[in-house]
Amino acid sequence: MLRCMLRSKIHMATVTDSNINYEGSLTVDETILISAGIRPYEQVMISNLNNGERFETYVIPGKKGSGTICLNGPTARKGITGDRIIIFCYEYYTEDELKKFSPKIIRLNSGNKIIE
User: Fold this and answer.
1) Which uninterrupted H or E stretch holds 60?
2) pLDDT tens-digit series, residues 100-111
3) Among 70, 93, 97, 111, whose CB has the most other CB atoms within 10 angstroms?
4) Pick from 62, 100, 107: which is nearest to 85 by CA?
């Protein structure tokens, strides 16, 4: 049996921009993606703490060290600049894999710099 578990979480990211005219996705500073173990074009779920929206999309890398968190395309309607969001990435694990399982949690400050 496989169980779907939280693999990575980017906690308290601040939306820096939104671009309704883009095809879709969420742009995330590549440094943050690497730290969280999230690959470009991987599916993620986002929860917006300011308005309660919860939605799925995929991530694309933003400029390293920029702190960019940009809602693109239809996701731009799910939040505004300054909103705080949580980005979740899940994976399926076997029972044996779960014996040594531990999710990667990345916490950000209000400028989207890693604090833990």
Assistant:
1) strand 54-62
2) 999 999 999 999
3) 70
4) 107
pTM over 0.85: yes
Check 58, 66, 90, 93 and give the catalytic one. Answer: 58
Domain ranges (residues) in the chain: 2-94
Q: Is 18 a catalytic residue?
A: no
- CA 90 vs. chain centroid, Å, equals 11
Residue 58 appears among annotated catalytic residues: yes
Rounded Cα–Cα distance for residues 29 and 59 (Å): 10
Enumerate residue ranges in the chain where pLDDT < 50. Answer: none
Among 52, 87, 88, 53, smallest CA distance to 69 is for 87
